[in-house]
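Title: [Solved] C-type lectin domain-containing protein 3D structure

Original question kept below for reference.
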Amino acid sequence: MAHLGYVESQQCPDQYTLTPDKKHCVRLHLGLNVMQQYADALCELEDAYLPKITETYMNTFVYNMASKSSAEVWLGIQCTGTIDNNTISCRWQDGSLVIYNNWVKGFPNDYVGQCAYMGVEGNGAGKWISSDCDLTQHSFMCEKDLANSTTRKDMPSKLNKINLKL
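Solution (posted by the thread starter after getting help):
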C-alpha cells in the first residue's frame, strides 16, 4: 500500500541489510567517525537507532559486519552509576535494561565512559567496551525494525543534507 510518497515493504530499504532473525535491517556507516550523540542523531534521520543487541546471534552479526571493514561501532547503550560501589546499570536507548551483554572483562567502567562501542580487534573483538560519549569518535551502524521500514522514494538520503561539525 502506497500513500504520501511512502512505500510499505517487507524488505530492507536501500543500503540496509536484513538481520538473521529477519526482523531488523542494519546499515553500516563507514568513513564518518563521530561522537555517540551524532551517531544517534544520524540514525534518527533515517528513522533508525544505534544497534540494540539482545542475543548472541545479533552480536555475532554486528561484529561480522563491522570487522569486515575494521570499524569499531557505537552501540545504543548508556550506563549510569559507578564501578566503585558496584551500582552500574546499563540501558538501551529505548530505556530497556541491558540483559544480554558481551562486555570485555572489567567493563562497563564509568571511569572510561558511559557509552559503549563494539571492538573489532584483539581481545576486544566482538566485545563491548566503555567509551566516553562526548570525546571518543567511532563509526556507527543504524538499525531499524523491518515492520517499520518505510522509505521515501521522492527524497534523497537525509544524511546527504546534514551538516555536522566534526
